[in-house]
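Lecture notes, structural biology module. Today: joint structure prediction for complexes of two components.
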Amino acid sequence: MNETKKIIEYSQIDSDRMRINVGPQHPSTHGVFRAEVEIDGEIVTELVPHIGYLHRCFEKHCEKRNFHQIVPYTDRLDYVSSMNNEWPYIMAVEKLAGIEVSEKVEILRVICAELNRIANHELCVATFGLDCGAFTPFLWLFRDREFALAILEKLSGGRLLYNYFAVGGMQKDIYPELKKDIKAFVKRVRETVVEVNNVLTYNKIFVNRTANVGILPKDVALSYACSGPVARASGIDYDLRKNEPYSVYNRFDFKTSVIREGEERHGCVGDSWNRNWVRVLEMEESCKILEQAIEILPEEGDVTAGIPKKVKVPKGEVYAHAESPKGEMGYYVVSNGKDIPERCRCRSASFVNLACLPDIVRGTMFADMIVILASIDIVLGDVDR
Amino acid sequence: MTTKEIFDTMKQYLGNDVIEVVTPDAGDEYIVVNAEKILDVAQFCRDFDEFAFDYLTLLSGIDCGETLGVVYHLFSTKNHNKVVLKAFVPRENPTLHTVERIWRAADWHERETYDMFGIVFQEHHNLIRILCPYDWEGYPLRKDYVAPTEYHGMPV
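The predicted structure, tokenised, for the full assembly:
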């Protein structure tokens, strides 16, 4: 009797809930994201995200620039995978203007996008490890990422912001040692992935820290329109490269990295470990695509030949999307027949994926919030635009 | 399913709330729907088995001069159908029912559309600005917007 009474009294003790700010200047928020967190002891009861600190009026700027001038602006959205930002914009304009590009341009675009995808995933896995306390894999992956950026720099002239894609072609032709560089890079990535898996991904401490943390169920992911690794880790078999093959992706042999019920190696479908695991798997798939792409990349042909001086666009509107490393990146471009778009709306993957954060964080430990945020892989340039 | 087939099916069930199919000179076709009945249209699009539009890819605002518009890009992960819906609202007093209870992805998109165009989504649970500061004045993406010269004493 006494014992029962004790339990009841204990459960009635209501500790004061506390509201604390995480960010906007905090290394674990990966930029200028501010989360207003209400905690009950160590448990998160509510999270209110505040974004917009890096808002640079992308859509407003687009209404003042012509179709060629917008490309450098798209670079600055998700600044760690700029090639993947440029591509859907270029696709939208080419679709509107009815411009066809040569095979060499298409394959070169695939190469750029996949190199950038590997660079992005390396950064994401590295910082995810860092947020869980693993420092060494961070250094290995950043070392390797530098090789991807070096190839892209040799191609385009820029290390992070490329301005390489152009409506109707590419800004520069390939350089002679490209194939050799990519072969060496792919070999290096494969070696590092094995090392990182041994040190980080299968590490018991890391698994305990991330498995079964921040579970995003499939129906919730679908309702929030999550895409990319976040959706695929929740069991949504949806990859634009496979399901709606754009460009020349239907010519490559690769798998969609999706975590299905019963096939998970650690944790469960939709948790933080599996989101990271999808990215590790995707690096290997990107390596496969790169290997096949350099085999069929023609040496001859001028990639700059098809770029028009002035893009002539009829009245109309189009939505074009591509699979960026973070998910579905799309542009909704409305044209009124002039050389300046009437409206250029950007669907950034980070913005949409981040919206589910308050729901999956509720009820978890406060320290896990950082892990969950890192596993969604946001870039604030992409969220705030 | 093509946009025309989707339009015919919608017309059969929803009647005059579905207005017309527009085919522009280039790009995608879209269906114009009655803005006052957007909640019914959205519910039908998601729950009707032949459509099953369970994925709201994008919700955007657009300034068409005399009116403002809201554009819904829908996708079905089951049937791989796509459709674009447009609803026009008057420039003065632009109100529309929210669809955040149909697709939760609409929550932040609607906040952004409110932020940029001042379109008010009725019964939205938390319709506040998202990208601009909370006390920002005016709706930046409207064509008649004049950018302020200063904000809290700071030059813009």
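Point to remember: Chain B touches chain A at residues 24-28, 30, 54-58, 60, 62-63, 71, 73, 77, 80, 84, 103-105, 107-108, 116, 129-133, 140-141 (CB under 8 Å).
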